[in-house]
Amino acid sequence: MSELKLKVPFKAPLNKVDTENQTWGCRANNPDICRNNGLEDICAFASSESICKQPSKAWGKQYGKLKRGE
């Protein structure tokens, strides 16, 4: 999948596989400086499922807001 399609805006609606602890695609504001960028099976860009398994600490709060429809 193209890298552009995996860059998901932080405030974009939730994807069906998004949870408090993972996101489909990368929701980092700047993936180039993410400490997990390129880590196999952790980073969305280096995962066969395109899932980020260690989103930022701010993601948990944002997930709650999106889940509640805020």
List the helices and strands and how they pair.
Layout lengths: L2 H4 L16 E2 L26 E2 L4 H12 L2
| Fraction of residues in helix | 10-25%
Topology order in helix (H) and strand (E) letters:
HEEH
Instruction: Give the radius of gyration.
Output: 11 Å
Number of strands: 2
- Secondary-structure-derived class: mainly alpha
Percentage beta strand: 5-15%
- Sum up the overall morphology in one term: globular
Low-confidence stretches: none
Give the strand order, joined by hyphens, for the main sheet. 1-2
* Separation, N- and C-terminal Cα atoms: 30 Å
Tell me what the structure shows.
The protein has 70 residues and is mostly helical. The chain has 2 helices and 2 strands. The protein has helices spanning 3-6, 57-68; strands at 23-24, 51-52. It has a two-stranded antiparallel ribbon with strand order 1-2. The longest helix has 12 residues, at 57-68. The termini are far apart.
Briefly characterize the structure:
This protein has 70 residues and is mainly alpha-helical. 23% of the residues lie in helices and 6% in strands. The model has no long low-confidence stretch (mean pLDDT 94).
Salient structural properties:
globular, single chain, two-stranded antiparallel sheet, mainly alpha, 70 residues, 2 helices, 2 strands
